[in-house]
Amino acid sequence: MIWAIVLAAGESRRMGRPKLLLPYGDKTIIETVVQNVVSSRADGAVVVLGGHRQEIEEKVRGFAVKRVINRRYQEGMLSSVRRGLLALPASARAAVFILADQPEVASSVIDLMIEAYCREKKGIVLPVYRKKRGHPLLIDLKYRREIESLSPDIGLRGLLREHRDDILEVRVPSPSVLKDIDDPDDYRGALGSIRGRARPKPDRV
After folding, report:
1. Cβ(127)–Cβ(62) under 8 Å?
2. Domain 2-197 maps to which CATH number in 1.10.1740.10, 3.10.290.10, 3.90.550.10, 3.30.70.380?
């Protein structure tokens, strides 16, 4: 089984307010991300909560996901990665780590990564757009113990450096894998992408 882990424990310091609760289309950012995850081929999903936990938990309560709390979220993203791994069932053999501030990453991108993992049997799968690596990140759980021993200062980058030969790069058709929402400019750009998709195309003559 392949599970998704949504990393939603950050404090949104650069945004100045809880960014995951900001409107995005007819939902919030976190609702959009979780909807994309549950619409994908992932067999299940965990949402890791931390900062602004109660408000975010209320937004995801209606989805078929497992909600867990990372009480050490201030130690950085690696602490949320580890907390998510602890919540996985014994039957899980890989996890897709998804940033909760990437609402533009569609379920089809997650599906491409899962399909590539099942087909190619590589331990680490990364999406690539125009030769640039992005997120989400799929990792086989044979690396679980190694993740537990990683330095928080280096994080999952250390795993990628150690296992270059076990990395599969999957080309994706969208720059969404390179975009997250860290500050107001990023948010305005993301809203602009929605408006661009919604704009009707002119009829062909």
Report:
1. no
2. 3.90.550.10
Query: Which pTM does this prediction carry?
Result: 0.91
Report d(CA 102, CA 147) in Å as an integer.
23
Q: What is the pLDDT, as a whole number, of residue 10?
A: 86
Of 29, 56, 39, 28, residue with least CA distance to 4 = 39
DSSP assignment of 48-73 equals EEBTBHHHHHHHHTTSS-EEEE-TTG
Residue identified by tokens 């928080």 is 152
Q: 112-146, pLDDT tens digit by residue?
A: 999 999 999 999 999 999 999 999 999 999 999 99
CB-neighbour burial class of residue 167 (10 A; exposed 0-12, middle 13-18, buried 19+): middle
| 29-38 and 53-60 helices, crossing angle to 10° | 40
Dist. CA 48–CA 4, nearest whole Å = 11
Domain boundaries, the chain: 2-197
Amino acid at 142: K
Strand pairing of 167-171 and 23-24? unpaired
